[in-house]
Amino acid sequence: MDSSKSTSNSQPNNFSSTYDPTNIDSPGFDPETYVTKLLRESRLTQLIDKEQLLTKQIKTLDNEMQTLVYENYNKFISATDTIRQMKKDFKTMEDEMTHLISTMSTINSNNHQIHLTLDNRRQEIRKLTSIHLLLQKLQYLFQLPNKLKEYADDNQYDLAVNTYTKALKALQKYEHIPSFNNIQQTCKETMNNIRDELKLRFDQQQTTSSNVVKLLLQLGESSDYLAQQYLSQNKQRLEQPLELMKQQLIVAENQLGSTSSTTTSNVVTQQIHPMDILEFVDTSYSSYIKNLHEFIESYELLFIRNSSTISSSPSIEDEYKERCKKYLEEYLLELYSNYIKFIHDLFQSKYYGQDDDIQLYVRAIDRFLRRSSNDIYKYLFTQNALEKMRFMLDTFLTFAIECRLKFYHIYIDRRFHDQIIELRKSLTIIQPTTTNEHTQSSSTEHQQSQLNLSQCVDKILKQLTNDIKITFQNLSIFLDGTEMIGHIGKKNVFIKQFAKNHVWNGFFLTLLHRLITYFEHEYTTASNNSTIIRHEQSSPPILLLMLSKLILDFDSSSIPYLCTVFEEKFNLILENNQRGDNQKSGSSIDRSKLTAIQKQFSIIAKQLLKQYICSQGYTLSQMLRKSIETRDWLNTIEPRHVRSVMKRIIEDLTQIDKQVRMLYNDQQSSAPLPSLSSSYGRYYHRSNLTSGGARSSDGGRRTIIMPRSSALDRTISGGPGSSGGSTGNLQLNFHKVFSEKLDIFIDLQFQKTSILSSIIKLLLKTYLECIRLKTFSRYGLQQVQVDINYLYNYLWSFVNNDDRFITSLLEEIVSSTAMRCLDPILMEASVITVICEGN
């Protein structure tokens, strides 16, 4: 109902708009209504403007009407003239047709009269004509031997062969007649002499003209022999352009080697600029393959298309053609394989193979494959030859891609090694030596503070990541070529194989293996099955720390980012194939190999970190060991200060803490270290804690390290040889059996606290072993007490207050010293505190 109402309402609206009396363009226009509406709704100025507009439109319509009338009048006049002219032309044609009919009737009558006149003698004329032709042929045959001899004497062998082949059928037809038989024998002798002369020329010439071969074929010479000899004689000529291109390639490489020698050589190379790789491929292809194609055309004209002998059946001639095609295919494949070998040398040369212009490189490959596909395939007749040619082109494509991958490997390795060398130089300049004084170490600290280790690592990491990313982008250009696909219609298969075999396995995974090999060979000195690490390092210890951070960041951030870039560029997905299923989707690649490589990166990073710990611990331990071994502990005076070696150890540990803090941070922020030059020791730090109410002056870190009860029992028993001493040793050894074993690298993590803890463990373990080799006096024991408590006041902050192992080791050191003391009298705790605070 609603729809019917709407349609009924719309119809009056359309009608009113079509027959509007106020619309000047509608059929129902009413001038009076229109004028009345204008007078009622418009002002005077609007009426004047409307009047001027209507006047202008009326004049325009009048002019258009006059123009149309004039044009129609002209057309009517021209049509009238045309009709009048056509009437005149038709009258002329009628007169000419009448005259033609009368002429044709006259010709027919004359023709009939001549036919009646000559009808009686027509048979005689035919007989005479045939006799005349026969006499001419006989005369030609009788004169044939003399003509052939004249042609042979004048070396006009082509005329002789053509003349003989024309008369050969007639001689064979009438060879049963003695006179004709003699003529045929004489001609054969002459033609045999000509054939022997042509064959002698054919064998002696290095490059045979096609005319000689054509004449020998017409004389019945074996096509197999001629085809093989013709191919071998032209081989050297066809390979001359290839030899010239090889010389140009040698010149280009020589210019590359001499560009940096002298300025004069630079001037020469500027004057003689070698071609780029695309131009070189085009030039070599045009010069070599063009000559080869021309030769093939001539060969086909001689042996395949027009190979005809004097007398041969169609089956024999077909066999000849098939053998000639086979010879041509083998010859073509041999020459083309030589050319592809040259192209291999071109793409792996130093000058053209190391060009940075990847687009030009890909265009050269695409141009070569396209031209080869278009030109060579049409000359191969068997499927076996086509497969061999396709295999050579596919092999070349794989070789060209591998050359480019090798170039990128070398390029990235060189840039990465340059960054490492630059970093080593900067670290060597600021590396402190063990013989420097305090002023030199303070200047070194200032230089190292200026060198932001984290920024250096980030710089190397960004460059390496960016180089790999740019390489992915450059390798994706290979997919733009249309003729690079080895099999037509399988572009998707080629893209997946290229991305998987070449980009993923051939470039990315291989590059990661090269990095692993580089770090293992240059920096890691411990095998995977051994915990022994050599301390003689040619690399600065800080470099090992930075490299471990570099490897860790590359493994955790750069590799996932590069995987994302790879997936975007090549439209593939990386998936883990944990079950070993080979049935993967067409757009996915197994990343299990990458997972194994990432594990190796983590292992190498931890090995480098262990080497850094061992190197720093070894340096501190050597300093401590020499100070213990060179001191006479039995004739030591009463201690009044902390030994300088302890201060130096704390300085070095503070510097190590700053270095490690730049690269590795704990999850919780560690307390800032005070400046050793302004307030030496942790007592200044403890006073800050005390003012804040966190620690008291008598508790917390003010605890004095004392020997264990078992060692004190020995001091009470009186004498190292008494039974009480034996009981103390037994108790101490019993305590060691049930105590936790000290492992320097147990639960080593990439955190500052873990690294510093391992170094301190190694230092204190060395301290303990050196103490066990010495015998001490009373003052020697007290000096060790002072040194141990001084170390304790600093070491706890390096490990974020987790000092249980420090306390245990320091107590064991003091206990071991007390056991080896001749007069084990301990220093009072208050005196130790005063001495440590004074230093």
Automatic annotation (TrEMBL):
One GO BP: lipid transport
Annotated keywords: Golgi apparatus, Lipid transport, Protein transport, Transport
UniProt KW Ion transport keyword: no
Segment forming the signal sequence: none
Region Disordered: start-end pairs: 1-28
Matching InterPro entries: Vps51 (IPR014812)
Composition bias type Polar residues, residue spans: 1-25
Assigned GO CC terms: cytosol; EARP complex; GARP complex; membrane
Keyword Oxidoreductase applies: no
Primary site of residence: Golgi
Cell location: Golgi apparatus, trans-Golgi network
Listed transmembrane segments: none
A Pfam family per the record: VPS51_Exo84_N
Family as reported in the entry's similarity comment: Belongs to the VPS51 family.
The protein's role, per its UniProt record: Acts as component of the GARP complex that is involved in retrograde transport from early and late endosomes to the trans-Golgi network (TGN).
Complex and partners: Component of the Golgi-associated retrograde protein (GARP) complex.
Protein name: Vacuolar protein sorting-associated protein 51 homolog
